[in-house]
Amino acid sequence: MEHPENSNEYKGLTVNDGVEHPASVNPYMTHRKKRRIMSVDEYVDGILKGNVTILSQAVTLIESTNPDHQIIAQEVIEKCLPHSGNSVRIGISGVPGAGKSTSIDVFGLHVLQEKGGKLAVLAIDPSSERSKGSILGDKTRMEKLSQHPDAFIRPSPSAGSLGGVARKTRETIVLCEAAGYDKIFVETVGVGQSETAVHSMVDFFLLIQLAGTGDELQGIKRGIMEMADAIIINKADGSNIEKAKLAATQFKNALHLFPAPESGWLPRVMTYSGFYNIGVKPIWDMIFEYIDFVKHNGYFYHNRNEQARYWMYETINEHLHDSFYHNPIIESMMKQNEDNVLQGKVTSFAAARNLLDIYWKEMKNK
Ligand code: GDP
Questions:
Q1: With contact defined as beta carbons under 8 Å apart, do 110 and 142 qualify?
Q2: What ranges in the chain are assigned the alpha helix state H?
């Protein structure tokens, strides 16, 4: 059977319409039963035993904005940290419609079958609440994998600043690894800065592309291509095969123009079909070849150290940002200062300085 997207009218690159979600609150429910918050040790114990329910509850604490939950979550993460790290982390990116869910379903089953172990699929999608569209990590999108006993699929933390959403995913990786998940996929929509965040927490960055638009190289940002350890061109099936091969050649040529990556690995370009499960094994053989290669030359560990450093600074930035913008006095004065700038009464710099001075005075008196 020919896939409908192989018809001539289909141009290859589509952006799917969002699906409006029904309200998540049941209007008939007058009070919600509160789940008991367990002790830090109970969470850690459950996670180390691989208890999926407790793992999910701990991830919910990470995602919670309640400061009490955050305190417990941070302690749980700290205690899980010595048990984490023993995994292969793969970032998977591609625009909506590129075939991420179809591919991850097939990739996940392939990897579990070939290598055994356990797989966690996480996501970073800072737009999820706003666009109502992409529901990355939603179980229904990965039908087969979501039924696999060794797969844990978790949607993106709900919308917030990219830094915040990404940090939560980074912390969730720690818990998943402590729970014995030795393969981690982190999925993201390939449309912006979220790739940088994903790139900063994975060992291998896989970019899914499509052929058929004729201008595939123009639509994709140079920065994203530079991050890719491999570009894989999906939907190489039916009448699309030749177009996919042509696109692969174009990508290969383009990659030659980039400086050699620090890892010493030359990014590969391959074609495959996630829907028909064609060419999946060579992709994963290549990824595990990469892991061997960078473990051997030391880059694997160097990169993870660099990432740990990056996340230290990112977390400091995020907390400073939140502390400033959520300070009640600052919040109450923000609008007035903004108006003054817009009306030309003060310069942007003077207004910023004024707010920062007030903030620092506040902090001193605390
Ligand atoms: P995502 O938005 O990146 O998660 O993309 P999806 O996995 O939801 O796929 C978008 C559309 O592309 C769906 O209609 C899929 O059936 C189709 N699709 C995915 N992979 C393939 C493939 O290998 N070949 C063909 N012909 N279609 C595919």
A1: no
A2: 40-48, 52-63, 67-80, 100-115, 128-131, 143-146, 162-178, 194-199, 222-227, 241-256, 280-297, 299-325, 328-342, 348-364
Q: Which residues make Cβ contacts (< 8 Å) with residue 278, sequence separation at least 6?
A: 236, 237, 272
Q: Specify the pTM.
A: 0.83
Pocket test for ligand 1, best of 2, 3, 121 (most atoms within 8 A of CB): 3
- What's the CA-to-centroid distance between 262 and ligand 1, angstroms? 33
Please provide residue 95's backbone torsions phi and psi, each rounded to the nearest 5 degrees: -65, 160
Which residue, judged by its Cα, is nearest atom 27 of ligand 1?
235
Q: Please give the residue that has the higher pLDDT: either 316 or 133.
A: 316
Give pLDDT tens digits for 38-78: 999 999 999 999 999 999 999 999 988 888 998 999 999 99
CA of 314 to the centre of ligand 1 (A): 34
How remote is the CA of residue 98 from the centroid of ligand 1, in Å? 6
For ligand 1, atom 16, which residue shows the shortest CA distance? 275
Residues 74-92, mean pLDDT to the nearest whole number: 95
Distance of CA 291 to the CA centre of its chain: 20
Residues touching ligand 1 (Cβ under 6 Å) are 3, 5-6, 16, 94, 96-102, 234-235, 237, 273-275
pLDDT in tens, 95-144: 888 899 999 999 999 999 999 999 999 988 776 543 444 444 454 678 89
Q: Which atom of ligand 1 is nearest to the CA of 96?
A: 2
